[in-house]
Write a structure and sequence with these properties.
The structure is a homodimer of 348-residue chains.
Chain A lengths: L1 H14 L2 H19 L9 E2 L2 E2 L2 H12 L11 H4 L46 H10 L8 H9 L5 H8 L7 H13 L7 H6 L8 H12 L16 E3 L19 H4 L7 E3 L21 H13 L5 H12 L26
Antiparallel strand pairs in A: 1-2, 3-4
């Protein structure tokens, strides 16, 4: 027995010098990660000229869930950016008014406040500007600023919430609708993902596989485009930087950011997708044709990086991406004030 | 001064004998009302063979809001029975899969547990049976029991909620989906309307006009069909008992309960609509063509009662009907578990 103890002690003694190395290796990865990524902190209290007040958030929540912002009275922001799901609709492309299909996959609303600009092509500078888009798009909510304002003014129960958010007077305006929705959306963040806990120093928050995936993610330069608090959403890159994706992933008619800037170099350029909650926001890419996160990683490796990743690498990166799923905010369903006989008749 | 006091005293003395009469008149109305109507109490703890447990309610809430119960992945129970609005969609008739219009106005889900049977024609005995209808209707959610079960089984996050609600084993069944939805819907009651407070003895809960309206409602026999806790929802009557309604209100192709019983006398027979929250559930009737509550009262007076009501009577009854708006339950939006690559592809 004594002998066994001695052997074990000797064995442990042999291992001892290795421990600092292992520790250092771990620390290196965390250090590297901290240089590239940020945990989700508090949402901003102000967006450009929009103070994010409790009254504005509450009104914004009502508007976000109110289908009467659409001309049919059936489609709300939440229809395509469903807070019960991943802040999106889980469909390849959005379905809107008259069952028309939109041109692109609905991005998640969660953490969108941390993106540099909104939409796949970054054509809206902020959430306020973004909110005005789908309300007016014929294939989405199919309304107009005039119809939205007329509808809200016809509903007496909206008077006080608008006054509380924007003061007395003629405050029921399309701009204020967008401001309130922005205020609510600023609260839609999902902190406390395993990766956030890791970045904050809890090294056990990631599994070994997830750490290997993180290492591969960094070493293979995924983080060149997918960095920061949202692991993306900050800058624009051609989809097919190295190798052109197959046609179903990159339909020729959608030239991406070219439609915004009208600059030849912006052909098929899109905003690098923010990767927070990516594991719960399939299908992937602007075309929404890939359902498996592993396949999405493979496509990115090929088209953007020209990187050879074996199955294990891909599994590891997918495992790491699963660590980006955060905690959704608890949202109580709003009590929407009733329409009146003055409310414009829904368009069916 | 003394003289004035004397005069007032004498005047009051003259009035004194009248007081019991006024009191009695008030009491009479309340007494009469209590014989016809009931305040909303607690919801039942059991519906036929379905125990209403917290786990079942929680699962039912998830399913109620989950658009993946539809084949498109876009339409949930809440789409047409919106808990933010009046538990309905505020549209003349439902819009469902492929933007198809349904044949009838979506009834409110609130307090539906108190109806004797479900749907405008009472073709579902209970909420459990009702829930199965729209999920399968081609013009609504357009799914099948098999697709619903395959979808839910493909989502690992539904395993535990089903086990907690129905025990271990093969409990993800279409029957259990309906049971859980029923359990949640049982909680969707709106107590504490002014009329409830009145029935419980608070005579100030109704305005004088609302009391006049209540009196007219009783005297004109509205309460013959619209009585009980839900002021309706208990029995069946031809729409056009006295005078046939105009064609837009009673489209000839929809023969109502005839399609259920196949009995000649059931031509154009419908369940008397429950009137709780009627002020916030326009448009009215199974055809959904009347938006103004006053107009709805006028139509009823003419078609069902052959009653002559002047404008004041109609205003009074409408005012009374406004006292039936209760307090909606506070519902936190559920966190729905994510789909997987095994989840059936949505049908677009």
């Amino acid at each position: 027995m004594k002998r066994i103890t001695l052997v074990i002690t000797a064995f442990c003694a042999l291992l001892l010098p290795l421990l600092p190395m292992a520790q250092e290796k771990k620390d290196d990865l965390l250090k590297e990660a901290r240089e590239l990524f940020e945990p989700i902190g508090k949402p901003p209290g102000k967006i450009t000229d929009n103070d994010i007040t409790p009254a504005k958030i509450e009104l914004g929540k009502m508007l976000y869930f109110d289908p009467r912002l659409s001309s049919s009275g059936l489609i709300s922001c939440n229809t395509c950016h469903n807070l019960g799901l991943g802040g999106d609709d889980g469909l390849p492309v959005a379905i809107g008014h008259d069952w028309k299909k939109g041109p692109r996959n609905s991005p998640t609303v969660f953490n969108s406040v941390f993106n540099a600009a909104q939409f796949w092509d970054g054509r809206a500078a902020d959430l306020k500007e973004q909110a005005k888009g789908p309300i007016q798009a014929g294939v989405e909510m199919n309304s107009t600023p005039e119809l939205v304002v007329a509808t809200l003014k016809s509903i007496p129960g909206y008077k006080t919430p608008f006054e509380q958010a924007f003061g007395k007077g003629d405050t029921i305006t399309f701009d204020n609708v967008a401001r309130a929705i922005e205020a609510f959306e600023v609260t839609l963040i999902t902190p406390d993902a395993p990766f956030d806990r890791y970045l904050k120093g809890d090294e056990k928050a990631l599994t070994d596989q997830q750490k290997r995936g993180l290492k591969t993610f960094i070493d293979q330069n995924c983080a060149s485009c997918h960095s920061g608090v949202n692991l993306g959403g900050q800058s624009y890159f051609p989809f097919g930087l190295v190798t052109k994706p197959e046609a179903k992933l990159l339909p020729t008619e959608d030239k991406g950011r070219f439609a915004v800037t009208n600059t030849a170099g912006d052909d098929y350029v899109f905003r690098a997708a923010p990767l927070r909650n990516v594991a719960i926001t399939a299908p992937y890419f602007h075309s929404g044709q890939i359902r498996d996160l592993r396949d999405a990683v493979t496509v990115m490796a090929t088209t953007q990086l020209g990187a050879k990743m074996n199955d294990k690498d891909i599994d590891d990166v997918a495992a790491f991406l699963n660590s980006l799923t955060g905690k959704k905010p608890v949202v109580s369903y709003p009590d929407l004030p009733p329409s009146t006989t003055k409310t414009p008749v829904p368009v069916q």
